[in-house]
Amino acid sequence: MFDEFGFPPGPDLDYAAPILDTFVYCSRAAEGVDGDEVDRMIERSQRRNVERHITGVLVFGSGVFFQWIEGPTAEVEKLIASLHDDPRHYDIVPLDRSVEKRERLYPNWEMELVGADDIRTVLEDALESTKDENNIAALRRILKHLDVGSLDTLGRI
Ligand SMILES: Cc1cc2nc3c(=O)[nH]c(=O)nc-3n(C[C@H](O)[C@H](O)[C@H](O)COP(=O)(O)O)c2cc1C
Questions:
Q1: Which residue has the least CA distance to atom 22 on ligand 1?
Q2: Domain-wise residue ranges, the chain
Q3: What lines the ligand 1 site, CB under 6 Å?
Q4: pLDDT for 99-141, tens place per residue?
Q5: Whole-angstrom Cα distance, residue 60 to residue 126?
Q6: Is this structure's pTM higher than 0.85?
Q7: Which end of the chain has fewer CB atoms at under 10 Å, N or C?
Q8: Contact indicator for 97, 69 with CB cutoff of 8 Å
């Protein structure tokens, strides 16, 4: 039997670095979606994410979302489908998608809500703390997006 990450049980296996699916995107909040609505959404998301082994960060500011989602592929794929059907946001711009053996970048965040001013710091802190080459490459790609334009601009592509 394989576990949820596709690994057979065994004493010498490296469970710290499972196959992890990562999806990073930004989108624009629909009209009427305010801080209170996002707080309620985060509360429900956190409950579901714990059950689905999904962790990550959601940034909300200036009417724009930025989200880093990581977890088992089947669960991440289900969430991506839900996100595309969700009327609370639109203009979803995928920024990064990978399925790799890597450590979680946000192992203790079942979806942390972060203010837009802090997104660069959150990503730079993650870059400093990770030794995983795939994580480093993905974070550099996202930071480059931030350099090219603000999250606001990304949401309008
Ligand atoms: C910006 C944004 C981020 C979201 N993040 C999550 C999340 O991390 N986890 C989650 O379960 N739902 C999240 N949702 C809600 C999902 O889109 C969806 O409503 C939820 O998964 C329930 O889907 P279902 O009714 O198809 O089961 C998010 C919605 C939006 C608009």
A1: 82
A2: 23-155
A3: 41, 45, 48-49, 58, 65, 67, 79, 82-83, 86, 88-89, 111
A4: 998 889 889 999 999 887 777 887 888 888 888 888 788 788 8
A5: 18
A6: no
A7: N
A8: no
Of all protein residues, the one whose alpha carbon is nearest to atom 25 of ligand 1 is: 82
- The amino acid at residue 107 is P
Average pLDDT, the chain: 83
* Alpha-carbon distances, residue 98 vs 18, 24, 87, 110, 135 (angstroms): 13, 9, 25, 19, 10
pLDDT cut 70: percent of the chain above it: 83
Q: Which helix (H) or strand (E) holds 94?
A: strand 89-101
pLDDT at residue number 78:
97
Fold entry, domain 23-155: Alpha-Beta Plaits (3.30.70)
Q: Which atom of ligand 1 is nearest to the CA of 48?
A: 11
Q: Are 37 and 15 in contact (CB under 8 A)?
A: no
